[in-house]
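Predict structure. Chain length: 137.
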Amino acid sequence: MHILELLAGEVRYGRAALPECCSRVARYLEEPFREAFLRIGGRMEENTGASFGEVFREEMEGALRSLPLQGEDREGFLRFAAQTGFADGQMQLRAIEQSVERLRTTEEKVVSENAEKCRMAVGLGAMGGLLLILVLW
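Prediction complete.
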């Protein structure tokens, strides 16, 4: 989400299009994302005919491989690039903000599920302990 928020800030306050923002945002990121964003900016400057969404997906898939993400989480992050074919900065900003909201919703869901799993693990541990006491008694 941090990356998307940085991109949104560049589009909003820097008044630049997403391809131009990538090189600017790279200086705030750590590896492997810094290198990926520099490559995205460079490839978009070369103007090879590939869309921003295609270039972003290709470069970020390589950077995301080093993270312990499930396929669904990875796709949730990469999904925003497919919606960025807009020339208008406001539409690009809206697409980024929608992606951030979807990621926040997913994050809240995962946190809630983890809390439930922790409670269940404690309950199962207590029940296992009681069973062990009964068996040994």
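Summary: The chain has one domain: 2-136.
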